[in-house]
Amino acid sequence: MALNLVACLISLVISSVFPQARALHHTQGFFGFTPNLVDFISSTSSPSSSTSIPPTPSFPETPPLVPAFFVIGDSSVDCGTNNFLVTLARADRLPYGRDFDTHRPTGRFCNGRIPVDYLALRLGLPFVPSYLGQSGRVEDMLQGVNYASAGAGIIFSSGSELGQHVSLSQQIQQFTDTYQQFILSMGEHGAADLISNSVVYISIGINDYIHFYLRNVSNVQNLFLPWSFNQFLASIVRLEIKNLYTMNVRKVVVMGLAPIGCAPHYLSEYRSENGECIEVINDIVREFNFVMRYMIEQLGKELRDSNIIFCDVFEGSMDIIKNHRRYGFNVTADACCGLGKYRGWLMCISPEMACSNASNHIWWDQFHPTDAVNAILAENVWNGLHSNMCYPMNMEDMVVPKQK
């Protein structure tokens, strides 16, 4: 019986890779696909509503605080990029999205909204569309684009065992392409003005631990102690931020890493007795965030007229975990959706695996928080409503003109 269940679940995972490949022709050269493979996948796929851009809830007709919002990252902020890739890292079927505005899966790795959805509304902007999910017309990108891809890491190969993803350097290249389109459409001055007044949000790095360092890929743990590995990753992020700066990016929000030592996957794998976090993993995350915060502080001094802030997601998340009752959560260790101990052994792949009420859970699946947690973290990024986790300022301070 158990073997039959596992076989069925594996079959579901495999089938989820090929339901929709409408936009693969846009990325054929980028990912090295052959036309025959694209045709084969397209011919065996049926159109899915999950690839459309979800409607944004209405808000008062006031001018946005910034012209546009650009998102770079991994599954924490992927809004549908991986719907168009051949990968196991997909969230294009229920129960993902069941509590979203449309009650349909959109590619977000959550039961509802992700942090950048809440922040877009704060900025007075619509939900940011996926780069691979929009038409490519400049008019559709003027208010921002989301390049984030589940499984992506700072290191190019992180997460590659899951299938295709768009790494950090590739996302920076996509942003470069977008900027060049703006220049062709509105001229250098117009493009520079739009970009310099917009916000770029970066949330990436966790897959370099989940799918690379902690798995000891290429014997990396013998080559790098955690501190050296953290510095190596930070140096890459620093270089990419400087690349963005050369394209007139001046407002950057860099997110730290969440406490994955508390995630259901590692509670299950490390056989946590009573839901205690795995401190050896959290210690590495703390170190990374420390290195990143220092790097961001120094880079902000180096790059003239820049506003770069670092938000320590570890601090904000641990405040939620430690004070869960105050926030309205009564399930802190078990995921809402999954199988095995803490529901962290197998990924969320069917509605039957999900709990009935995600709002009282901290974790939605193996690694990702629920919509309720994302809302709290977004409020902290915006103005530190629940806990101060951004340095040297909050996002609101970055974008709202100071009263004289």
UniProtKB/TrEMBL annotation:
It comes from the Eukaryota. It comes from Morella rubra. GO terms for molecular function: hydrolase activity, acting on ester bonds. Gene3D superfamilies: SGNH hydrolase (3.40.50.1110). InterPro entries: GDSL, GDSL_Est/Lipase, SGNH_hydro_sf, SGNH_plant_lipase-like. One of its GO terms (biological process) is lipid catabolic process. Belongs to the 'GDSL' lipolytic enzyme family. Keywords: Hydrolase, Lipid degradation, Lipid metabolism, Signal. Pfam families: Lipase_GDSL (PF00657). This is GDSL esterase/lipase 7. The keyword Hydrolase applies. The keyword Signal applies.
